[in-house]
Amino acid sequence: MTKFPTNKLIQSIVAGMVFSMPAIEISAQSIRDSVELEPVVVTASHSPKALKDAPVVTRLITRHDIKITDATNIQDLLTQEMPGLEFGFAMSQETSLNMSGFGGNAILFLVDGERMAGETMDNVDYSRMNLDNVGRIEIVKGASSALYGSNAVGGVINIISRETIEPWTANANSRYSDFGHEWRHGASFSFNNTKWNSQTSFQHTTIDPIDLPKAHTAEEIALELLKKAQGLPYDESILNDDSNLSRLYGQKTYNVKERLTWRASDQLTLIGRGCYFFRTSERDTHDYHFNGYSAGLKGKYAWSNDQQLELSYAFDQYDKANFMPDGTRKHDHDYVNRQHVVHALFNTQLSAINAHLILGADLLNDYLSTYQFVAGTSQSQNNIDGYAQFDWNVTNQLNLVGSIRYDYFSASAQKALTERLAIVYKHPWMTFRVNYASGFRAPTLKEMYMHFDMGNMGYMIIGNPDLEPERSHNFNVAIERINRIDDSGFLDGRYSFTLMGYCNIFDKRITTIDGGLVDGMESALYWNEDGIKVWGVDASLGHIWDCGLSLKLNYSWMKEAGHVYYSDFYQPRSQSLTWRLGYDHRFSRYYAIDAALSGRSHGKPQSGRTDVDQGYTIWKLMLQHHIWRGININTAIDNIFNYKPKTYYYCSPLTTGTSVSVGLSVDIDKIL
Amino acid sequence: MKIKKFLAMMVAATTMVFGVYSCGSDDNENEPEKPVAAQVAGSYEGQEIIKVMGEVSSDTTTTYSFAKATDLTVDMTIPGFGMGAMTIPSFPVKEIPLTKGEKAITGKLDSYSGTVTDGKGQEKAYTVNNIVVAFDGETVAVTYELKYGAMPMPMMTTFTGTKK
After folding, report:
1. CATH number, domain containing residue A264
2. Which end of chain B is more exposed for a tag (fewer CB within 10 A), N or C?
3. pTM of whole model > 0.90?
4. Which residue range is the domain that position A412 belongs to?
């Protein structure tokens, strides 16, 4: 058995190379080995640490994982990679999310550590987060508000851009899937020298409307209804159609991103970024238009390797409006959410005691104007916070990380104090982690000031300025073993095993209760509800054989107790499993292959709902052919065994049966 | 000349034979069958059930009307109704093509869109999808999905009624 190197310099170099290299330009074998050796993560501690040293279990999705899943955006990717996580739909086909019993608004999504504005159903617009130029994604389950503030109640998902190290790169790619006749076209360009690094990417997607198959046609239902009306014998089962959805709306997206880094000196680095996103969704009576604008400037000053200061400003705006088919803009559904964030982060190495201190502060201005407010009104508030983290390596084996954070919200005058204590003990055989963290979610401006006749149906939803923040307490214990097997024949290779048990105590959940009559209409009022407890176990197992085979298994079990509420849009499942069996091999200088047989299996809904499928399993086969220099052909068969939901309810998997996709990606710089 | 005379006589004979046959047939049958659109046209009173997100939002007795548009198509008038404080005025779905089958006369239309002015004078767009009508004798069954104005979710509607 080989002991891994622990030198931080080596870790950083290896990780830097791993995350800055496009996965397709070197042999798949080397990618895999690099990724599995010493990846560095930042989300769990706000500073770079080797994955195996992270104070909290961190799920890492590498660039190779992203490539092999052939995912277009974060929703596609997480659906395939994460057990215990499901995306669904809400009323107007806004996307909803459930992760280990937490709704989407309890999961904080970050892009390079920055928040995003806007919401669709319960979180940001997931289609803004396309995966072009993404280096890796880090997922920390459980509360993380002591580092990230509001919304980090049930977990943090941090999408981290890659930085190339080649002098220049250029890529063009295109992919077609017969599911909704979906097209995805992308292009990226980068250049790099000692002073400058630039990453530019563009992506465009289109998908047609998809009519979801039903057990019985509308004509069969009408004829059965006719029999019933005539008093003739009829089949009741034909009339009982519980589908919530009959058609998925088509949409188009455009996404362009630029990230420019200027290494002004050995001490000073400036990073500027900008992004524009546009999505249109064709609905029956009108079209929805969504815009996202994002920009930021960040400066990093390093006095030495041990002391750094980071200052940044970020702007993000998300707006939406309805348009008539003739292109006329309607103003009855205008929505604008705008955020300005000023951020400061200081970190210093306290070498004398082998510790690391981080001090940070943010000022966030949040502005919201929406058709859901009283006509003509808008609201805004400031969020001010300060936090500190002390990361102490007590011995070579024992690491303690303590964090504390204070947040203040001007609109609600609410305060939140959150803490975390993580202990990592590295036994030669195994790494043990014990973690306590608290989390909160401040009431949003919408939840405080909403005054909305839902869909003109005469049912009002009323905000509540007196709402308190949601609170969570997360306890988890984990063991992890990473090692290598040698001289054992077929099993030779590397393996990893992680087992984590957790308990989340979630209180003061913000939901709605009966609000009585308002303006003569029935109403729902935002309110803090009693909490729930979520118990669970996450297990993951990975093995990478020397012969080119690899296996990843991720299992999740969870149970909710207390004041459990099941919405049509969230149907948490107690058990779920994802897996991927991979094989990569370079046959010659001109041809290599990456193959993956992956799948996901979800158990029955915890709600006990019986009118829908009691679980499902979906398999996917992916083949990537790396040809000559920089030419890559991707082919995939999704839902190999042609699973079709019995009825399409809000939490059904988005499939109408087996689908195929084919894509071409060309690295122009490699060819030239 | 003889040939022309012979042909004329043959034409006359043929005409007489078919004419007699035709007259004989008319004598033995009822009136010619009316076009399908005319057969089903009329007003039907019965039960309308509207579901939103799988829940029954409205269960009322109302009247649907069908008017002949062409021999093979009908215009359906969906009656106005109220749901909560929202009032949706009556609106048409035009030219539903009909087919006569063994069991019933059925009509199907994938989608129909239009605009209607509501009680507040505002113009609202609507789209009706997956429209199916089935007639048998004096009974009708109707199913469709209605998207109205900015309402985010469709109203899944069924109607069964008998001719007034």
Report:
1. 2.40.170.20
2. N
3. no
4. 8-209+249-449+470-507+530-671
Q: How many domains does chain A have?
A: 1
Cβ neighbours, 10 Å, residue A377: 11
Half-sphere exposure of A202 (CA within 13 A, CB side): 6
Kindly report the CATH number assigned to the domain that includes residue B132.
2.40.128
Residue A243 lies in a domain: no
How confident is the model over A367-384, as pLDDT tens digits?
999 999 998 899 999 999
Report strand pairing: A493-507 vs A470-485: antiparallel
Same domain, B27 and B98: no
Tens digit of pLDDT for each residue in A515-560?
888 877 788 999 998 888 999 999 999 999 988 899 999 999 999 9
At A276, the amino acid letter reads Y
SS3 of B70-83: the string is ECCEEEEEECCEEE
Same domain, B63 and B90: yes
The reported pLDDT for the residue numbered B5 is 53
Assess whether B5 and B40 both reside in one domain: no
The parent domain of residue B5 ranges over 1-32
Q: Count contacts between A and B (CB, < 8 Å).
A: 112
How far is A92 from chain B, CA to nearest CA, in Å?
Answer: 5
Mean pLDDT to the nearest integer, A37-53:
85
- Do B75 and B23 lie in one domain? The reply is no
Q: What is the pLDDT of residue A22?
A: 37
B153 interfacial to chain A (CB closer than 8 Å):
yes
Smallest CA–CA distance from B141 into chain A, residue: A226
Q: Do B150 and A456 touch (CB under 8 A)?
A: yes
The single-letter DSSP state of residue A231 is T
Selected residue with higher pLDDT from A253 and B154: A253
Pick from A313, A328, A322: which is nearest to A370 by CA?
A322
Cα–Cα distances in Å, from B139 out to A145, A429, A560, A639, B41? Answer: 63, 77, 50, 43, 12
Nearest-CB residue to B134 (from A226, A285, A520):
A226
Give Cβ neighbours of residue A300 (< 8 Å, ≥ 6 apart).
A268, A269, A270, A271, A308, A309, A310
Q: Is the ipTM of this complex over 0.95?
A: no
**Is B49 an 8 Å CB contact of chain A?**
no
**Is there a contact between A244 and B53 if contact means CB atoms under 8 Å apart?**
yes
Q: Chain B, 92-151: which have a CB under 8 Å from a chain A CB?
A: 103-104, 106, 108, 111, 113, 125-127, 129-137, 139-145, 147-151
Across A332-345, average pLDDT: 94
> Do residue B91 and residue B120 come from a single domain?
yes
Rounded distance between C-alpha atoms, residue A449 and residue A457, angstroms: 19
User: Quick one: pLDDT at residue B83?
Assistant: 63
Say what the pLDDT of residue A407 is. 97
Whether residue B157 sits in one domain with residue B127: yes
The structural domain count of chain B equals 2
- What type of residue sits at position A398? L
Choose, out of A120, A453, A456, the residue to mutate when testing the contact with B (most B CBs < 10 Å): A456
Q: Note whether B13 and B66 are same-domain residues.
A: no
A454 belongs to a structural domain: no
- The label of the residue with tokens 């041809």 reads A591
User: Is residue A232 one of the residues assigned to a domain?
Assistant: no
Are B13 and B87 in a shared domain? Answer: no
| Three-state SS annotation for A514-536 | EEEEECCEEEEEEEEECCEEEEE
Question: Tokens 């094989």 appear where?
Answer: A583
